[in-house]
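Throughout our pipeline, every protein is held as a single compact record rather than as scattered files. The record that follows is passed on verbatim for readers who wish to inspect the format:
___
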Amino acid sequence: MPPPTERERQMLGITAEIRSINALRAEREDDNTLLSPVEALQDAIADIQDPKNTHKPTKLVIIGLNNDESYDVSFWLSNIKASEVLALLEYMKADMLDCMRGE
């Protein structure tokens, strides 16, 4: 049975957020490897749509990796130039390296 739509949730007075067990566990353990790609996208959409969230992106880059033998890479872009994608990837590379070093 699919989860209720936003309209159904409003009609029933449901205010609690519905999240998968994996998403809750991934957040608690700070381990994104527990999330499926769909769960990560659902979390991102929920964050973007949350009226309390003041960070509203105007551009978006999604990179998908199929790490089986083919190692296929997919991109989904929204409102962003190639030069901006490269700058964002460089920024994220530096940020991730800092995180890996514990900074």
